Amino acid sequence: MFKIGDKVSYPMHGAGTIVDISYEDFLGEQVQYYTISIPVGGVRVKVPVDKAEELGLRDIIQNDVKADIIDTLGGKGSVMPSSWTQRNRMNINKLRTGEITEVAAVVRNLLLLSEERNLASGDRKMLNKAMNLLLSELIMSFDIDEDEAKDRIYSFVFHDSGQENGGNVE
Question: How many CB atoms are located within 10 Å of the residue 76 CB?
Fold first, then answer.
């Protein structure tokens, strides 16, 4: 069970801090909820405590996952379907897992695709969604601001300066 002040990640919404744990009436029954404040986008989300694990609520990434994120962002892009519908479905499924490396893969693939051609509006929306999820987790996990997190993402994907700092996210 999480407590107030814990930093958590919630699939499809991003990383934030638990700011309240309360009981609310839901269909005549008292249900306990976590209230999570997500800094990117200024969103507050309520998650039922008894379904939190099932819904994918987890601790934010720790130091041991840094290398996985760097490897994912710096890796070769995945082969993506040429059909926007299939590509969108594949990306949504990756985001729904709540796995930060899957989110990073979506960001990497769409950023690389954007270098080849203009993204369709659906791809731009997906990139924005995935980028916000990744940004929120990096901001919360590594105590950096949004601009610094974006710079690091771009440097690893495009290999600009990611190795200058030894490949570290910190």
Answer: 8
